[in-house]
Design a protein that fits this description.
- By secondary structure, this protein is of the alpha+beta class.
- The protein contains twelve helices and 13 strands.
- The chain has helices at residues 30-44, 64-68, 116-130, 150-179, 181-187, 200-207, 228-242, 271-276, 291-298, 352-355, 361-365, 378-382, and strands at 12-20, 52-59, 85-92, 97-105, 217-221, 246-253, 256-262, 278-283, 301-310, 317-325, 334-340, 343-350, 370-373.
- It has an eight-stranded mixed beta sheet with strand order 8-7-6-9-11-12-5-13, sandwiched between helices.
- A hairpin with a 2-residue loop joins strand 6 (246-253) and strand 7 (256-262).
- Helix 4 crosses helix 6.
- The radius of gyration is 21 Å and the shape is globular.
Length: 390
């Protein structure tokens, strides 16, 4: 049977943070930022100074969306391999605003990862140094070890082989639909919105539609009255609105991560439940080719990414942030959150139909969002993904 195409991502994560800063910076020093980020990386005890680089520049009236879509520089960014994290500090030349764009490696192997949480910590420590302050001590305790047991192997079997079975069913469904299209088109009611993806069948239908190349949309929020508990409640409401099976989440073992899933939103708030639902041990994110299976698996789950609470010694005020796994399939739905110096930020992503106010409780409850779209320029600027050693 012909393999159904789904878009495969890179092994790079793009994070962009927006801050209001105490004073206008017109001519930022690239070398000062580079020295500071290397010092911050070394202080974590997890990343060598040689694995990070920083640059700094000004733009006229930048926005979080324009910074997210800044062209990638092949002389600064790293196409393949790692570990590598690149930090761009972008200043508004007319207003006291700063943006930080981070492109970091999710790695082919566990030794090559600088995960998003660790990369964020490095950026925030760098900001402390740039303001002339001492770096705050890490508030992240060592994670409780995950003992990979038979329970987790059963979880893995259910996730992977269950997905393979659903993919086979979806391919058979597509094969039958193509050959019976005339009869089906003449007897069935008008089809639903093809961008509303919630299983392998609808994912494959999306990739054969006119919308296949459309980017994902993002909504970014800074809700004043909704914290993490409220965020979790909105997650469950969004799952029901989108008719999704459940949730996919990551357990942080910086710089490694373990993955888990659950049909119950309450499990995301419980450490023991998250560990119980894990199906792979701590390691690297899946390399691009494995997303031939990951995309159909995630098509029925909401990807949830909680970056935790961060307290740092700087005056800059967080405004918004966006999490963009570069070239990730557009229909996959995700949500994330972080708290920086007491300010709660969150986002969600998916096709525009999934983020419409009528089906997106975040837009209804979190206030006016900032809108952006995913960056789709990584492969065109940096070249195709290559496994380590090639």
């Amino acid at each position: 049977m012909t393999k159904v195409f789904t878009k495969l991502p890179s092994n790079r994560l793009c994070l962009v943070y927006e801050f209001d800063i105490p004073e206008l910076v017109v001519s930022p020093s690239e070398s000062e930022h580079d020295v500071a980020v290397q010092k911050a990386a070394t202080a974590t005890g997890k990343v060598a100074a040689t694995s990070v680089r920083a640059t700094a520049y000004s733009r006229s009236n930048p926005s979080i969306s324009s910074v997210q879509h800044e062209p990638f520089d092949p002389t600064f960014h790293v196409a393949n391999g790692g570990p590598a994290a690149r930090f761009e500090f972008v200043y508004d030349d007319k207003h006291p605003k700063m943006f930080v764009r981070i492109v970091t490696s999710l790695g082919d192997t566990a030794e090559m990862i600088i995960d998003g949480v660790l990369a964020t910590r490095i950026a925030l420590h760098t900001m402390e140094l740039l303001e002339g302050n001492e770096m705050s001590k890490s508030i992240f305790p060592e994670a409780t070890p995950l003992h990979y047991s038979w329970r987790h192997r059963v979880n893995f079997f259910q996730e992977i082989f269950g997905t393979k079975a659903r993919v086979i069913f979806a391919e058979i469904h597509m094969w039958i639909a193509k050959r019976c299209s005339f009869f089906m088109d003449s007897t069935l009611s008008p089809s639903r919105d093809v961008t509303e993806v919630n299983d392998a069948v609808s994912l494959f239908q999306f990739y054969e539609s006119m919308y296949a190349d459309q980017p994902a949309s993002y909504k970014l929020y800074r809700p004043e009255l909704i914290g993490f508990k409220g965020f979790v409640g909105l997650l469950e409401e969004w799952r029901r609105e989108q008719d999704m099976w459940g949730f996919f989440y990551l357990i942080n073992f910086s710089p490694k991560v373990a993955a888990g899933s659950s049909s119950r939103v309450q499990d995301i708030t419980s450490l023991s439940a998250r560990y119980r639902g894990a199906f792979v041990p701590p390691g690297a994110g899946p390399p691009p080719f494995l997303w031939e299976l990951e995309n159909p698996r995630l098509s029925r789950q909401i990807f949830v990414n909680n970056y935790g609470r961060h307290q740092h010694n700087f005056q800059a005020k967080p405004v918004a942030y966006v999490w963009d796994w570069l070239e990730m399939a557009a229909p996959l739905k995700g949500c994330g959150c972080i708290t920086i110096n007491g300010v709660f930020l969150c986002w969600n992503r998916g096709m525009p139909s999934a983020l419409d106010e009528s089906k997106n409780p975040f837009t209804r409850e979190c206030g006016e969002p900032i809108a952006t779209t995913q960056n789709q320029e990584w492969f065109s600027k940096m070249g195709p993904w290559k496994p380590q050693g090639q």
